[in-house]
């Protein structure tokens, strides 16, 4: 198996065993590989990051990109691949980088410039560098979420990452230019972000299909969706309550709404009659025998012998 970088071919990178992950283990691993050209010596660190950024994304980013060092220069640094706490622990050419999926931070440079530097099934993506106006480029797993669908930049599961060519800004979208609305398709607007602007869905001023409503899903984003439960955007909640809107990666065009109230915290009032405090939210109490039913699209759940409450009835086959 080979890994493609530009027009050259290099042997596949061997797997990293536990014995190589101790103190200075990454550098030991590099030494074992000897004089091989290493396009992705730390791919194992980033293989859990789904999503994909095209080279166009780097042009719309407001971040200065950390350079991708030549292999010889990278290996000549004394701190490459070592654990770190701050950027000061690393060679000036490297950055202390981590993700929520890693247990530690490591001194690294950018691992790619374009998708051509990444193995099949991965793409070159930009991530912000902590405490700096910089971005670092790494090869990340391409996901399966489509344009306009919910996504996660940090999930280990490709099911929650975006398809190739899309960026994850809460929802997947193609790269765009904020000063040129035509770079987004109809039904999308261009949202700016440090790591690059991306098209996000909007149904404002548009008619939705029959049975769907235009629902705000955070920021300026809105989607045409089937509403389960009480549409508390059009029917305001009672005093002290707020409208909770839940959406999931799939079904992509459905949302669950309910009026909730904060509870269980200092100075918060008790839950209204007919509800119970779960995870600091007052949720409607229900009965599995049907004496107290949930709204359409919600199901009655709870631990054996404990209180049962109404929660969104999302298909269990979803990721």
Walk me through this protein's architecture:
- Helices cover about 10% and strands about 30% of the residues.
- It has a four-stranded mixed sheet, with no helix packed on it. Strands 3-8-7 form a three-stranded mixed sheet. A three-stranded antiparallel sheet has the order 4-6-5, with no helix packed on it.
- With about 325 residues, it is mainly beta.
- A hairpin with a 1-residue loop joins strand 9 (about 165-170) and strand 10.
- It has two domains: about 1-145, no CATH class; about 225-310, no CATH class.
- The protein contains four helices and 20 strands.
Total tally of structural domains:
2
Major beta-sheet overview: 4 strands, mixed
The proportion of residues in beta strands is 25-35%
What proportion of the residues is helical, as a percent range? under 10%
- Could you give the order of strands across the largest sheet? 13-14-16-15
- Return the string of H and E elements: EEHHHEHEEEEEEEEEEEEEEEEE
Q: Which stretches are poorly predicted, pLDDT < 50 over at least 5 residues?
A: 1-59
Structural class computed from helices and strand pairing: mainly beta
In round numbers, the mean pLDDT is 78
